[in-house]
Amino acid sequence: MTGVQTCALPIYWHLTDDEGFRVESKIFPLLHEKGSNGDYYTQAQIKEIVAYARDRGIILVPEFDMPGHSQSWFAGYPELASLPGPYHPGPRGQWQQEHPDPNAPKGGSIADIIANMVAPTFDPTNEKLYVFLDKFIGEMANLFPSGYMHIGADENNGMAWKKNPAIVAWMKDHQIANTDELQRYYVDRVYGILKKHQRKLIGWEEIFNEKLPKDAIVHKWIPESNGMIKSYGKTSDFTSHGNPVLISVGFYTDVFMPAYIHYQNSVLQGLNDPQVLGGEAAQWTELADNENIDGRIWPRTAAIAERLWSPENVNDVEDMYRRLFVFNLQLDEQGFPHIANYERALRRLSNGGPIDNIKALTDVLSPVRGYKKLIGNMMKAPQNSYQTTPLTAVSDIIPVESEIKRKFRALVKLYLEKHDKDAENAIRTYLMAWQQNNTQIEPLFAGNKRLSEIQDHSKNLASAAAIGLEALERADKGINDAAWVQQHSAQLDTYAKPHYETEIAVIPEIAELVVGHVVPEPESYPQF
């Protein structure tokens, strides 16, 4: 989160979710004792981190996610939940496995699952909940002096409330027409508690309604048209109501978008409203661990920072990439482990053997864009095994942004637009190396299950490189054959298909050599 109206840099810290409660509570010790699986920050550690950040001009804003995403809370305090337990920390799908509903719809799309999932949720009709939260928020306010607290309030479809007859009866008695209104009631009650403790409420955009207090900060995260999740309005809808806004939509680094997508985030275009406090580069960690988390954050987050801290006319993507990869090496020199961890993971992938030929291939691969990888993992049997499976697949190892792809793209553009001979020679060097690499890497695939995930990519890259070399030869000879272009463009389309949640990043540029002109990059990629 970047705050453009303050001298300090706020950093938003997501501390609770279904999977774990990550901070010590001395008033309610069962929160971390039963809700964390032993992984939590002590209050002494929290104070140390807060002081460390403060000394560097950073304020930490905690999120305690509720009323949904709260399974870990109920491991120790099941009486706060809308449905009976027992509970223990774990992924949202765990609840459906352990409490199967015979009347639940079978199958359906991801959107259907999101709409019908019965997920662990606070009971907002329980007055004891607000006594509990008053004490808890008071305790946490002493740890985090920033003046803000994020309450989450996202992704609650109200199904847990609909399944509880007592909650339904309470809603009828209090003339609350639906679960959206019940969520508003809940948010208003928590808003009052935060006010008591001199804290400003921040919540995801699901908190927004026409009666929301104007000092509540709305955190925009849902694309207006995504086909899966209901958007609660545009940024301008929130600001025109008088609410300050933080923007994360378009800045989710965990969905594997290239830096230029974030850099050209259309949500920010023409947006000069002083009610927009800033933006946040969000990195969720379902598909990140200690080995790859730095590579998932850097260097793309630097491009997001520049976007948020720069005028709109600073928008040259090619120049951004030129500087981004210089900065990437500077981070490495400063001790950031993203490059070293990538190369270390490749050595493990090669079983300690040489990695030059493996790296020549993986350097031009990228993970599939959007949530395809996460959803694919979530759907695998046994369900929820993705939570504990080591992140050792090639798609977990490779950088999101291929530096070689950006260099190769710049060369192709220079060659096609200006017929630059040096660029053509450099393109040939790349293509010849990729064509030859498959023969050199082939013996390494034998008996190596992980490495064999990209065996098809290796073959396809070699074949694509041969097509690219032929395209250069035909261009030099002035041969213009529409049938040849059509045939080989179709062939390259097949090479662009993902394997094991990875794809060859340079196929679009080789395709440009075939058609003889630069093709604009996609303005966005589907998230689902």
Draw up the topology in text.
Blueprint: E1 9-14, E2 16-17, E3 20-21, H1 30-35, H2 43-54, E4 58-66, H3 71-76, H4 93-98, H5 110-116, H6 127-143, E5 148-152, H7 159-162, H8 165-173, H9 179-196, E6 200-204, E7 217-220, H10 235-240, E8 245-247, H11 259-263, E9 276-279, H12 293-297, H13 300-308, H14 317-333, H15 338-349, H16 356-362, E10 365-367, H17 372-379, H18 394-397, H19 403-418, H20 421-445, H21 455-476, H22 482-495, E11 502-504, H23 507-515
Parallel strand pairs: 1-4, 4-5, 5-6, 6-7, 7-8, 8-9
Antiparallel strand pairs: 2-3, 10-11
Helix pairs in contact: 6-9, 16-20, 19-20, 19-23, 20-21, 21-22, 21-23, 22-23
Describe what you observe in this structure.
With 528 residues, the protein is α/β, with parallel strands linked by helices. The protein has 2 domains: 9-315, TIM Barrel; 337-515, no CATH class. The chain contains 23 helices and 11 strands. The strands form 3 sheets. It has a 7-stranded parallel beta sheet with strand order 1-4-5-6-7-8-9. α16 crosses α20 (421-445) and α19 (403-418) runs antiparallel to α20 (421-445). The chain is elongated. The two termini are 25 Å apart.
